[in-house]
Design brief:
Length: about 230
Amino acid sequence: MARSDLTLGAFCHAINRTYRVNHNSVAALRNVDKEFPRGSVTVIAGPSGSGKSSLLPILACVERPDSGSIEIGGQSVANVTARERRRLRRYTIAYIFQDPIENLVEYLSAADQVRLAARLRGQRVDDDVVDEVLASVNLSHRHKHHPHHLSGGEQQRVSIACAMVGGPALVVADEPTAELDSHAADQVLDGVRVLADRGAAFVIASHDPRVISRADHLLLLDHGRTAESW
C-alpha cells in the first residue's frame, strides 16, 4: 500500500515489530496503520508496554520494522539505504527527547542552538529569523541564555524552536511534558501548536491527559495493537 499525498507528514501501514527477550518473542507492534497529516498534532497513547516506544523510533527512521511500509514527506523509506535514512533524519525529521537537556548543546545559547539546527539542515539563518523563531515560542527574552540557565519548560521550547528551522515534514516527540509542571507543559504544548500550524506533522508519544486533550488525532495502542484511531 503506497501513498503519494504530500499533505501527509508520515504514513505507516501494517507495521510489525517483534523483540527477543530471554529467548522469547515479544510482539511490540502488530499490524499498526496510521496517517500523520501535516499541520496537525497526533498523539500516540497507551499504557506502559503498549508499543508507543517501539513505534516512535520507527517513524523517526531510527529503527526498522520487521514488516510493513512507511512514508515520510511523501517518500517511501522501506528499502532506502542507510545513507538515505541518515539524510531523512537530518533534513526531513526532527526528534525531541523526553529529557529537555538531551535536546540541546550545553555550551550554546538559545539563539545559537537555533542557528546550529539550521546549519545541520543545510541552511543559514540571519538574526531576524532566529529572533522570530524564538519569539514564536515566547523566548525572546532568553535568546542569550545557555541551557543551565533555563527551566525545563524553556529548554523544551528551545528544542521546539530548533525543530522549526528547515521546515521538517515530521516532528517526533517522546513524552515531551513528562518532566514538566502544568504551567511549563502548557507553554510547551503552545509551542507544539505553533510548529504544527507551520505545516509539520507533529507526533507525540504520551499518556499525559494534558497532551491528549490538545491532539487533533489519536492513535491508542494496547499490547501493540490499535485500540482506537481517529
